[in-house]
Amino acid sequence: MDVVGWCFFFLLLPSFFFLPSHTQSESFTSILVSQNGLDFVKDLLVNKAIASIIPLQIPRIEKSVRIPFLGGIDVVVSNLTIYELDVASSYVKLGETGVVIVASGTTCNLSMNWHYSYTTWLGPIEISDQGIASVQVEGMEIGLSLGLQSDEGGLKLSLSECGCHVKNISIELEGGASWFYQGMVNAFKDQIGASVETTIANKLSEGVSDLDSFLQSLPKEIPVDDNAALNVTFTSDPILRNSSITFEIDGLFTKTETNRVFRKSLSSVICPGNSKMLGISLDEDVFNSAAALYYNAEYMQWIVDKVPEQSLLNTARWRFIIPQLYKKYPNQDMNLNISLSSPPLVKISEQYVGANVDADLVIDVLEAGQVIPVACISLVIRGSGALRVTGNNLGGSVKLEDFSMSLKWSNVGNLHLHLLQPIVWTVIQTVFVPYANDHLEKGFPLPVIRGFTLENAQIICSSSQITVCSDVAYLDPSQLRLRLPRSTPKSF
């Protein structure tokens, strides 16, 4: 669909009848479009809609009249074209059962060709004349009532009412003996007005039908990478309020079966003062579903064989920390095999975004081409996060707060864990945290329609969820590659 189609979609999304709900699925992401957002997209839609339908061809009009002493006169108006359309004002009104989109005070200018001919009763002589004319339509009102409901995870659009009413029309002829025939052509005002009304209404109806087909083809997943995608199926019908509309989508990461059962806990989207156009709320289970997906795909295992201080990976460095290790394997290189024992658990509160990670650290000795596990330490790592919106992606970073250790098993005697703590801290800080931040920095896409970008985004944390409150800007196709400056990170 072209850029105009996207504009129609983004406006019409918040502009539907609230039809009776089907059986609802659980929702972990909700999107609120405020009145400011509705007004912004409505203005954008009007401009793009006008550009998409101009010029608009009106069917030719033929009329036969009988005049005393002259006989029958055939008059034809052809090549009737709307070449300019101007909307003085427009509004979107939400109600309990639906929405009305109205453009009022609309004027349009048309051009046309006129031709008449008749045969006199005095003889078989045909008399004709032709020319062009300018037509101006004033005080036109255009209205739409639309309905939308969820349909098997997608959206189905329906047109309830569509109308166009012309108040005033004036015709000015040029060419031929136009001054003489002005009154005759003025008799076409009603027919021209009716044709304008019918053609515009039909064009809008076709646009809604095309948009419905487009909605049916919308993807139900947004790819994140080769291993994960966001489930963006709609879980219920839109929720209409006096000055906003909310959409609920699944929002979890998909593609790999997870063992964790997620609960529905999402509350209403809250943006202070509704000053922003758009609010996107994500439950902490969205992040936990991503963690579970990558964990089950076995992407949370690392073999550390290089560290900034490479001497750490030789038993000689450990001779005073684990004497039996050095005695049994003197001057042997080592690996540290880190694997998570369960998916990371993300917790969100008003003051804090953090994650708890349970991991096993296996100490491997490399001897004669063999990898020999000699000890395993269980780790409980606690980190805090900073979130930021970059373009239409939500990303961030993590830092280490603290960790605890316990010995799981050992083939080299008892370990003095307090002596190991500085080494483990160094490994986590120099290997684990940078690796995690490389991936977190990229982030994942927020459910924003292509062609639009978030601007001046703010991140608000509440119990078990975050909300991205943002204005929205529209980018023409030639500007789609424009990079926007990052917002200031939100730390906790």
UniProtKB/TrEMBL annotation:
UniProt keyword annotations, A-Z: Glycoprotein, Signal
Domain of life of the source: Eukaryota
Which part of the chain is the Lipid-binding serum glycoprotein N-terminal domain? 33-258
* Signal peptide segment: 1-25
Looking up InterPro entries in the UniProt record yields: Bactericidal_perm-incr_a/b_dom, BPI/LBP, BPI/LBP_pln, Lipid-bd_serum_glycop_C, Lipid-bd_serum_glycop_N
What cellular component GO annotations does this protein have? extracellular space
Q: Name one GO molecular function term.
A: lipid binding
Q: Where is the Lipid-binding serum glycoprotein C-terminal domain?
A: 272-470
Protein's UniProt keywords contain Signal: yes
Q: Which SUPFAM superfamilies match?
A: Bactericidal permeability-increasing protein, BPI
Does the entry feature the keyword Glycoprotein, yes or no?
A: yes
Question: Which PANTHER family does the record match to this protein?
Answer: LIPID-BINDING SERUM GLYCOPROTEIN C-TERMINAL DOMAIN-CONTAINING PROTEIN, OS06G0309200 PROTEIN
The UniProt entry's sequence similarity note says: Belongs to the BPI/LBP/Plunc superfamily. BPI/LBP (TC 1.C.40) family.
Q: What is this protein called?
A: BPI/LBP family protein At1g04970
Native species of this protein? Thlaspi arvense (Field penny-cress)
